[in-house]
Amino acid sequence: MSTRLLSGNEAIARGAWEAGVAVGVGYPGTPSTETLESLAKLGVEHGMGSGDGVDGPYCEWAPNEKVALEVGIGASMGGVRCLVTMKHVGVNVAADPLMSVCNAGVNGGLVVLAADDPSCYSSQNEQDSRNYAAFARVPMLEPSDSEEARRFTAVAFELSERFDTPVMLRETVRIAHTKTPVETGAARAVVEPRPYETDPDKYVMMPAVARVRRLETDRREELLRSFAETTDLNRVEMRDPSIGVICSGACYQHVREALPQASTLKLGVSWPLPAERVRAFARSVGACYVVEEACDYFEQHVLAMGVELATPPCGSLPRNGEMTPARIRASFGVEQPAHPAAAQDLPPRPPALCPGCPHRLVYAELHRLKAIVTGDIGCYTLGAIAPLNSVHSVIDMGASLSMAHGMELAGVPGRNGRPVVGVIGDSTFAHSGIESLLGTIYNGGTGTLCILDNRTTAMTGCQGNPVNGITLTEQANGVRPLDEHPGPELDLVELCRAMGVQDVRLVDSQDLKAVRRALREATKADDRLSVIVFKSPCRLVDRSRKPVPTIADCRACGACIQIGCPCLGTDEQGRAVIDPTSCIGCGQCVQECPFGCIAAPEPRQDQTDGRQA
Amino acid sequence: MSEDEKTTTILLVGVGGQGTILAGDLLAKTAASCGHECKISEIHGMAQRGGSVSTVVRFGSHVSSMICDEGCADAIVAFEAIEALRAQQYLAPRGAMIVNDEIVTPLMVNIGKATMPSDIHGRLAELGATLVPAGSIARKAGSPKSTNVVLIGALSTKLPFDVDAWRDVIARRVPPKTVDANLAAFDLGRQAALAL
Asked: What is the pTM of this model?
């Protein structure tokens, strides 16, 4: 056996590959993204077949998580093993099929990865996916390091087929993005596709069938509860019997760190919980505690078993945010190491739009227009941060367009004298913005919708998507956004026209004059719906550089500084200076300088559609 | 716990894009090649876009948590001076601090929403930090992008791994065309830390 340091995501991909998974499908979302990318790479490295379960695996990005799970259900019904991946909020999108396929069950094993984000490192909330497993009554496995991630994934496929149910796999960001040793010597299992047989009594969830299948779910729950009582996925580790801690996942590691003498009930199965084992463990220790993060899932379920839980001697653990060994030490009165106090006077360094980011000029103009901007999920969320301050709501994917319509219904543009503008990215528009736009069109809404098409799903690492047409297989073969590829690209302008928008414009988002003109005209017209497709590639994809501009006779007005380029600073007299190492010569500051003091060493070549071969 | 069972914790901090992830990877692979269990944790996502970033590497005979709490870093490697101060509370008693002497002015200072702290170098000296001119050393080594490897060279003087173990990992991990420059960067970083 050889050992390698793999992230939890890479290990899940490894486990799925070893388990003979034939199909992988998902939507990118931190911290889940690398799972499907790793599985696709394994498929490419080891020879990929037609998705028939003998070769493989074949992987693809879906436009959103609901579609991903439905593809997965189809593949499972068709008889092959399928892994579906998403971040925690993606489960909300996929909840519709999840809440019914839990009753229909599976044919080939169906495993759904939910990657949670306690502390919201890269998310809009810290919801706990364990609640979805309990809600849908599907078993959930929860690894606490990468080796467990590999092994539990293989077990999840076996359980799925054995109990005729989808199985959820939950990881948190610290499992997903921590590399720990993994055994990588195992071969890929040869899993022949199961035969497909038409079975409407299992798969057609009309009322007469759904009522019967629900009883199957009840019966299955009893079997799963028995399984949870005996499986070694749940494990008691008796040490000091005076203190016992129930925990799972990363929290198990933090408990071992902070309270090395404590006995633990480590739960590898988060649903269903083994009530008898929990009660027996609680009886066997002097005081029984629960350590979990961002949610009181275990606590509520354990209390419902009639088990008495103790409060840590120095106060309850925080309910919000990520658990840490320090938080556990504090609650349990364990001495903390001495350390320097945190500095309080440091300038914050939040993430920012990159040098040359094609979103910057659009936001700078929206700021000048004093527009009320309903935003969306992606890099362009960073437009909310100073100095742009140009995004005023972010709720969920696709909400920008529909919320702008709601603001119109509330009479906001008229009452405030400010235009309302929805801003969404290309991948997010394909994810769930199209329906939002359809709602506005259908109901005769007006206003301005901006689609920021930077040719990639940038925030999660520049994936392919239906707009740029790059598939995950192409991505695994090294094709990057902007590369030549045979697949279709979604023409956003034609799509919007076909949906019924009369005023659709295509604008180069690096051309300030064109950006200004388009936004002014669109926001002035209050009698119609305008869609502006701002198109120019993400600078993480288009890495081309031009010479650094020169500054002469700067009047220290600060206009260029207020576009928030990380390469622009000021000297002691307030005059603009450019950091030549990070500047890529994008020309945004050249266009923004009201006095023409910043000059590009060579004339800027206008781009028609932002694409460079 | 006896000394040989102790887990060693290294915190690498910097500004998104400075190469903390590769540096952490070199450290983790070296520790693993020397027979240690190792965990390396990083937070991606929003943090990538020029914001503060951190990577935690922990190694020993057994490693539980992947988090570095306040007062727990046996060494902090800071790729930027303000980020070193931002991480100072993580330093363990008698912990080492290796700091690139470069200062990257935060955007918030450029736009006038925040001010630079005063006496950055004096405060780092009070923390016992070793200031390494990693940028100029990297240029001397022939690769301006190898600042992270210079800092790893400086860190190597604080850790019990053979120089050959580090060099083997670097040679295998960096792009083939840059192996010589990176090995030079490692050696020069090591010499700089030993000379200080």
From this structure: 0.95
